[in-house]
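Weekly puzzle thread! Below is a chain. First person to post its structure in token form gets bragging rights.
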Amino acid sequence: MKTIEVTVTRTINGTPDQVFDVWLDTRSPGGPWFGAERVLLNAVVDGVFYIGMKQGERGRPHYGRFIQLERGRTIEHTWMSESTHGLETTVTITLTARDGKTDFVLRHVGLPDDDDGRGHERGWNWFVSRAEERFTR
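Winning reply:
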């Protein structure tokens, strides 16, 4: 199966450590876990996560395992859902300090080259925008 990658970049008004902490905090707007119907999150290397998201009336489970966590620098995990068609894809977030802010780069690789795979760009842009808004208040 042909695969694609999605990249989302922003400059966020927070330090890399602050952005890292908010992204992994299930209780704070600004990460993909916040507001889900159900979240199980063990944010350690080899720790797993489950997110039960609602899309319309349907439940949309997402699963993964953390590969790398380096506070203020990198978050890397696998990502599987109905939209990846069972493929274990990889999400890598790189945080770089710049002038009191953070350059945030999210790269999602291994997505199926179809509407479901391409839809991740819209989804990640929405989550990253929430993180950006979290630091502009």
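Puzzle host: Confirmed. Bonus trivia for everyone else. The longest strand covers residues 58-70.
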